Model the fold of this input.
Amino acid sequence: MPIRQLPRDVAAKIAAGEVVERPASVVKELIENALDANARTIRLEIAGGGLDLIRVSDDGNGIAADDMPLAFARHATSKIDSLSDLEHIATLGFRGEALASIAAVARVTLLSRPRATTAGAQVNVDEGAIGPVTPAGAPAGTTITIRGLFASVPARLKFLKTRATETAHCLRLLEQYALAWPGVRFTAISEGRQVFSTPGDGRLLSAIVAVYGLRVAEQMVALDEDSDAESLQDHTASERPQVSGYVSRPSCYKATRQFISFFVNGRWVQSRTLNYAVEEAYHSLLLTGRHPIAVINIALDPAEMDVNVHPAKTEVRFLRERLVYAAVQRAVRAAVLATAETPQLSGRAFSAPAWPSSDSPFASPDGVLADSPSAASATSAPDSLWRGAGVEVGQSSARGAAGGFAVPGVAADGAVGGRKLPALRVLGQVSQSYIITEGPDGVYMVDQHAAHERILLEKMVAEWRARGVASQGLLEPQTVELAANEREAVEDHLEQLRGIGFEIEPFGGDAMLVRAVPATLSAQAHPQSLRELLLDLVGADSEAASHGETWEEHALANVACKAAIKAGQPLSPEEQREMIRQLEQVDAHQSCCHGRPTMVHLSLAALEREFDRR
Ligand code: ADP
Ligand code: MG
Done:
């Protein structure tokens, strides 16, 4: 075939392919345009996986009627003037290609009104053909509607996934931008239903709640923006990356890396190197195959990077990549390690005036003690120490919280972050719930239920990895009465249940006969509690999966909780010592399997402060 210049529309469709790979690419470009136009509210509407409809409305600067045709011309942009501008790009867009590319492969309607003008205007662009600009009523801001995406590019359609998958990609994109721009209110409507929204209150944590849910948000810790100041001393202010954001505690994790996000100056970027920096920071705190959740903002002088690496602008190149890598890694590491410390009582914890004024000792603002039933009947004096006192005890997450069933610190090869407890001397039990001990630096107060649960879990996990959880036959096998669907669920899990120490067989009708249980549980094997536990275990598939856990991990945590000594149980001095001795043997003793703390520490220094000795 002789060489020929391709017809314009063919060339345009080919070029469009670089920018618009799938519906989510369109969503990305439109959201970026809205953000560049200083929008405070952005609304996305999609239907049919984005193929039938994508509409993005914003309340930003708007486009003047006269500029409308130009907005669809290739390499037409209001964001840069010259090549030198490329060296300090502060906007998300700059290539002037997006609207042209989108319009080459879809039918587009642009409706817009700049805030300062009273009349809006509208223009239709059909597969690259720009129609007349006509007056139209419009709110201040811009609405772009895309229909029939790729209808004329069957080659592209072939490569798309199901509509549900494409919808998911579009929504994920919006979520990422919602995380990057917490000051902007995002709303998503899919197939006519609102599926997502952020408050736009400027707080990253609010956006995290909207995107990942409250339970994950509760497990996130903030990065300390100054953690890196010292190591960056040798660099000028403009060279220094500022790293901020949130990362998950090691007890909260996912099965994929998808939940690690980076935003460089508000731009969502993918970077294997930075992923690696984050995962490095969790070194030895997460098992292989587990990945943290992270929302990391990097603010950097635009001159320190090149954003023009990729047509879709999803990658950036850093001038000083090692510096950025190290800054991210250090910030994350510092935050993660801080969560692994034994929680400290804050210095003000024991301030005297709080004592007499307490009327409801267990209304502690952090709720830490509120879930201890026997404690509620205790005398108020010691408990009121905790009241309103800013007791810093880490996470008090309810059972079932994201990652709450994690087995932190238990590595596949049995060797991990092995920070063991110092030897502790038992002083006594308080409120039949807490064991008070003395260590090398002050007082350690241990929650007996949480500690015992941790001990049992570690033991069972170790057994399970070695050869299967120790099982104990019951002297009297127990009959458990079930409903038909419950029996079916139990029967579906018989193999798995056997793996963790249960021996169960059908017993006529819908009843099941339990012949053996995990050894740790043998003392608590009453029909009623067995029934509850079994139903918990067989009903937990999806819950476990959503935390990136195996069924067994989830199940063992459940068994440990059932088997552990409860709050409110008196323990003899020997029993208390035995418990502490076992806890000393356990790695990752700081938190029970639900992410609640097993102990809090009151240091000698804090005591001295309280007594005005220094
Ligand atoms: P780029 O964003 O790279 O400049 P685009 O093709 O995405 O190129 O957009 C072209 C121009 O259209 C932008 O430079 C901007 O001036 C204008 N524009 C696009 N979308 C909006 C919007 N939502 N609000 C205001 N102006 C917009
Ligand atoms: Mg753009």
